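Budget justification note: compute hours in this period were largely spent on complex prediction jobs such as the one shown. Inputs:
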Amino acid sequence: MSSVEMRNVSRVYQSGACEIKAVAALDLLVESGEFTVLAGPSGSGKSTLLNLAGGLDRPTSGEVFLNGESLNNQSDDQLTRQRLFKIGFIFQAYNLIPVLSAYENIQFTLQLQGIPESEHAGRIRPLLAELGLEGLEYRRPAELSGGQQQRVAVARAMIGQPAIILADEPTANLDSESAISLLQLMKQLNDEKGVTFLFSSHDQRVIDIARRVIRLRDGKINEDTGKSC
Ligand SMILES: Nc1ncnc2c1ncn2[C@@H]1O[C@H](COP(=O)(O)OP(=O)(O)O)[C@@H](O)[C@H]1O
Ligand SMILES: [Mg+2]
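Corresponding output:
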């Protein structure tokens, strides 16, 4: 089953009198179970592509499908629901809620999804253990290292059981050791639980860990290696 599909997708930004083609007539199929990186220099369209894939932005032309369902004709409210149930996001700057503990940050997704409170601990506790966060659950983000905060963000992205996790340069704010360790954790979750990841990076050591590497240049796919079929 496909997680994300793009058909002839373009995203044009208007900048004064100029048009910037951030993504240009791009076709992409990311299937369930992939562990795929979007590589490419700054300005090549990585963030724009991820935002389109996650329904945070709409294409100027073309069509985006999530789990086979087109996002094109969906209202903003419908897109918000799609994001809540089908997508986990991880951001470069972690984006945890500062006044909530690690546990509460993860729990927040379940609350938004309307999952009964009685089920929360049973889902959050095993995930904390799996992500090496036991003992840190009552700390607020400011009391955690960057690597620990990003692990909480991975847990928050996973807890709602999304079809795919999208991560825009998730290791950009981490030192290289924490970056590699976060990627290894993500790959382990992919291996053992089949969680689908599409993430961006311009760090070659991070890119090397991915199974499939899609290199973007000027909003187009320049190279696509390691595809499963
Ligand atoms: N909101 C925006 N308004 C105008 N141009 C933008 C906007 N966002 C991105 N761009 C342009 O689109 C292109 C792709 O940007 P982006 O997707 O952020 O690339 P990357 O994430 O690979 O650095 C760049 O030329 C960038 O300047
Ligand atoms: Mg970017």
